[in-house]
Design a protein that fits this description.
The structure holds two protein chains of two kinds. By secondary structure, chain A is mainly α. Chain A is about 70% helix and about 0% strand. By secondary structure, chain B is mainly α. Chain B is globular. Chain B starts with a helix and ends with a helix. The chains are: A mainly alpha, B mainly alpha.
Chain lengths: ~300, ~325
């Protein structure tokens, strides 16, 4: 996300050292002021959540979170212990992992095979089928969910993790196929030609050439799918239902919002627990996340 | 433990089965001629994906369309009754109006902020820091964002930051989420907070694609920064802005979680996607909920056509 190319407005004559840097900075104060203000506004809500989740309950409910920044500091882990013990958040965290990991891993191979066929095999109707995939990218899940629920009910899978994994696989495939097809399609033609001349079959070419080279795109797909499934409320709510033993974090927190109402010290702790993993993934693998967004991520 | 076993079996089993299937078909294809192989192979490779797409997207969407023409329990056809019932309700027009507000204001704020931040960060050294800060909310679930902003908007000035600020400036605390249209705009604000990062990332990449020489040449000819922005940057970024705007419009149409968590559609904040959920799971009506879903789908079709056109134009250039 960075560039070293200087493309800003022409600056004042460069002066050396700290003073020069300071002058250059002050000369463009409207730009800096705007950016700093916007950054603060963007951070404020999350900071409020984080600070409140570490405050004692009586403090959270009687005075604003900004007071916590005054001495003497009064911070506690009690809220985290409470939500983990009493509000089923620990179980929900495990459920979320249980939903998200398989739902991320299952679609990868299925999408990769289809993407390779779309990119490097000739067949009648190839374009029409791929355009169907592009169309499916934006289909609202609402238009498919009730029949999917009826389907899973008719085979006795409603409320089971298997049903959610398969449904998320289906819902995630258009994006996965689209992303991987564009990536695999941009590989050099000569690479495949020489492989085929050497007698390689498409299966060999796929496993020996395409898969190793497509790892960055597969990482983008996986991260995007993981974030999407981890943060999903609608599919989980409808197909898994609200039973605490299977409810993932978004479902459990949404129901805590209803039942706890003003129990802000608990809600903030629960919400922060749900954000931890996405934030770690985000900071660790931001590059792949951005690539996923760049490839026209329209989904859900 | 039982679940863990299922998970392991499925995580290894499904991809394993797909790989086995592809290798198996290759064995079978060896029995036929070279030309037949090349003809059948692509279909066999896309088949697993299309089985999933058909089961979970294509067939269900057709079923929803049929259900939208049937009664509450999907036992007999009732023509367009469900659609007429919906359109006859005053509250449904309020719902459509809200989605309209989301489309107009959510989209324009996200694009405008995204563009502003992309252009400004391009001129400073701490670009990455600002971008990361703006981008963080993209990683958070709508539910967590609902908690965060429910806390911000709380009526009690000793809890809610916004009301504390209002009181601090000498005003009276306001029940922020109880009055329409203020509440809808405040919910849109939550969406903007979450999605500006998305617009910023794409617009910033587009901006980096504009040649520095071109901008310098314009400045040498005496153009000021505003002219550079409006006469050069904006026209060149127009296609990228269109891409961002279509995605945001779709997000606006599908808005569900923010409304579900923060107001559950009460106090005049209802939107189509939440109405769908209510019609099905609160009112238990298959017909009207399907009709709501189909109306949502119809609203998205123009965007879908736009996307397909754009995709075709890109392919033509490849």
């Amino acid at each position: 996300m960075t560039t070293t190319v200087e493309r800003g407005a022409p600056r004042a004559e460069p002066r050396g050292g700290f003073l020069g840097a300071l002058t250059a900075f002050v000369d463009r104060w409207p730009v800096h002021l705007t950016l700093i203000l916007v950054s603060l506004v963007w951070l404020l809500p999350t900071a409020a959540l984080l600070v409140s989740s570490f405050r004692p309950a009586d403090q959270v409910l009687t005075n604003g979170w900004w007071n916590a920044l005054r001495l003497p500091f009064q911070f506690t882990l009690q809220n985290y212990q409470d939500v983990l013990d009493q509000n089923n958040i620990g179980q929900s965290f495990i459920n979320s992992l249980f939903v998200a990991i398989p739902a991320t891993l299952i679609p990868i191979m299925i999408a990769a095979f289809a993407a390779f066929a779309f990119a490097w095999m000739d067949f009648p109707g190839r374009n029409a089928l791929f355009i169907l995939v592009v169309g499916l990218l934006v289909i609202p899940l609402q238009s498919a969910l009730i029949p999917v629920l009826q389907l899973t009910t008719s085979v006795g899978l409603t409320g089971s993790f298997l049903a959610v994994w398969l449904a998320h696989t289906g819902f995630g495939l258009p994006f996965g196929i689209f992303l991987l097809r564009n990536f695999i399609g941009s590989m050099p033609r000569e690479m495949f030609e020489s492989a085929y001349i050497d007698g390689a079959s498409p299966v060999t070419a796929f496993f020996r050439l395409v898969m190793p080279l497509a790892i960055p795109a597969i990482a983008s797909m996986a991260i995007f799918q993981f974030m999407w499934v981890w943060n999903d409320l609608l599919v989980a709510l409808i197909i898994l239902g609200g039973t605490p033993s299977v409810a993932p974090l978004p479902v459990q927190i949404a129901s805590l919002v209803n039942s706890l109402g003003q129990g802000w010290q608990l809600l903030t702790a629960a919400a922060f627990i749900s954000m931890m993993l996405p934030l770690v993934v985000f900071f660790g693998l931001q590059r792949y996340f951005v690539r996923g967004i760049m490839s026209g991520s329209v989904k859900g | 433990m039982n679940n863990l076993l299922t998970a392991i079996i499925v995580v290894i089993g499904v991809p394993g089965a797909v790989v086995g299937y592809i290798i198996g078909t290759e064995w079978v294809l060896r029995l036929v001629s070279e030309t037949a192989r090349a003809r059948f192979r692509p279909w066999l490779w896309v088949l697993p994906a299309f089985l999933f797409l058909t089961t979970f997207l294509i067939y269900p969407t057709i079923r929803t369309f049929i259900a939208s023409l049937q009664n509450k329990r999907s036992t007999e056809f009732v023509g367009l009754t469900n659609y007429l019932t919906l359109l006859g309700r005053g509250s449904f027009w309020q719902t459509l109006l809200n989605n309209g507000l989301w489309i107009v204001f959510f989209t324009s704020f996200v694009v405008a902020f995204g563009l502003l931040i992309a252009v400004l960060t391009d001129r400073v050294r701490y670009e990455t820091v600002v971008k990361t800060v703006i981008f963080i909310p993209m990683a958070i679930s709508f539910v967590a964002a609902g908690v965060i902003w429910g806390f911000m908007y709380n009526f009690n000035p000793d809890i809610g930051t916004v009301n504390a600020a209002i009181v601090g400036l000498g005003g009276d605390p306001a029940p922020l989420l109880l009055e329409w249209p203020r509440n809808t705009f405040l919910l849109i604000g939550v969406g903007v907070w979450m999605w500006v990062g998305f617009a910023m990332v794409i617009l910033s990449a587009g901006l980096k694609g504009i040649s520095v020489e071109l901008l310098e040449a314009a400045r040498m000819d005496g153009a000021n920064e505003f002219q550079v922005f409006f006469r050069i940057i904006l026209p060149l970024l127009a296609p990228t802005i269109a891409v961002v705007a279509t995605t945001i419009v779709i997000t606006a149409l599908k808005t569900f979680d923010i409304v579900y968590v923060m107001t559950n559609g009460l106090y005049g904040t209802e939107v189509i996607a939440n109405l769908f959920y209510k019609e099905k799971f609160i009112n238990g009506n298959n017909g009207t909920s399907s009709a709501v879903a189909i109306i949502l789908l119809l609203a998205i079709v123009p965007v879908m056509i736009f996307n397909i056109r754009r995709f075709r134009a890109q392919e033509a250039m490849r």
